[in-house]
Amino acid sequence: MARRLAGWASRGWLRRVKRGLYLAVPVDAPDPAGWSEDPWYLADLAWGPCYVTGWTAANHWSLTDQVFRATVIATTQRVRQVEQALAGNAYLVHHVDAERLTWGLRPEWRHERRVLVTDPARTVAELLDSPALGGGIRHVAEILDTYLSDGDSLALTNSVGRLCNGAAFKRLGYLVERLGIHDEPLIRQCQEHATSGVVRLEPALPASGHRSSRWGLSVNVEVDV
Predict the structure, then answer these.
(1) FRET pair for 99, CA 20 to 30 Å: which of 27, 48, 91, 161?
(2) What residue segments make up the domains of the chain, in order of their start?
(3) Cβ partners under 8 Å of residue 75, min gap 6
(4) pLDDT per residue over 89-124, tens digit each?
(5) Using one digit for the tens of pLDDT, what is the confidence trace for 21-55?
(6) Strand pairing of 83-86 and 71-75?
(7) Residue 221: other Cβ atoms inside 10 A
(8) Number of neighbouring beta carbons within 10 Å of residue 142
(9) Nearest to 93 by CA among 165, 18, 150, 164
(10) What would the DSSP string read from start to end of 44-93?
(11) Which of 118, 98, 112, 5 is nearest to 56 (CA)?
């Protein structure tokens, strides 16, 4: 069967996604060799149970107009390599516990397949938890500013709390003040849940710059306002 599938793929009738996974190429595809499927649909086929998150979800919810090449995916499957490709689509794939699939997700239909994506509040929360998934803390600050312009700050703090990461609360509190957003209940929530110790505002860079004693942050990146 594997040889037969490979033969059909060589004729352009099938597109190999990964080992053991093929898709039928539409008969009206103008370029069968270059044809690909919707990246969310492919991700759910290859890595389900999974969900779309990071900058991909931020763009989906119109929290940013920047379009990144790679689709960000979180999966309960074990991941050996973060950067992956399926049928010409680039992905950033990371492992999460199954509990992450139980909250803060919304279904989106791609063809006949139900694909999960983080809701707006959880999208921002996950970016504060892991700024690399949002293209770095500067871009995360822009996304946060857009979200808080008409978003639900209580839903955001609830989502950050579910992630159980005090560093995310520190980044949130610092950025809210840096952006000049006047939301005292939000600031109090961040102060109450911030953990001890000093963490980096931008985890991808070494500790440098000044230290914010108020937020326990090494401000190693300047965020423009």
Answers:
(1) 91
(2) 1-33, 36-118, 120-225
(3) 47, 48, 49, 50, 93, 94, 95, 96
(4) 999 999 999 999 999 999 999 888 899 999 999 999
(5) 655 544 444 454 544 578 999 999 899 999 999 99
(6) unpaired
(7) 17
(8) 21
(9) 18
(10) HHHH-SEEE-HHHHHHHTTS-----SSEEEEESS--S-SEEEETTEEEEE
(11) 118
CA angle 151, 193, 100 (to 5 degrees): 65
Q: Which residues pair with 95 in a beta bridge?
A: 75
Amino acid at 144: L
Which residues on neighbouring strands pair with residue 18, listed in sequence order?
A: 21
CA 58 to chain centre: 8
**C-alpha distances in Å from residue 34, one per residue of 16, 66, 121:** 12, 25, 36
CA dihedral 54, 178, 180, 130 (to 10 degrees): 10
Torsion sign, CA atoms 105, 106, 110, 113: positive
Exposed/middle/buried for residue 208 (C-beta within 10 Å: 0-12, 13-18, 19+): exposed
* CA 221 to each of CA 155, 184, 191, 208: distance values in angstroms, whole numbers, following the listed order: 27, 24, 21, 8
Q: Which two tokens stand for residue 16?
A: 């190999």
Place of tokens 């898709």: 23
Q: Where are the alpha helices (DSSP H) in 53-202?
A: 54-60, 120-129, 137-150, 153-163, 166-178, 184-193
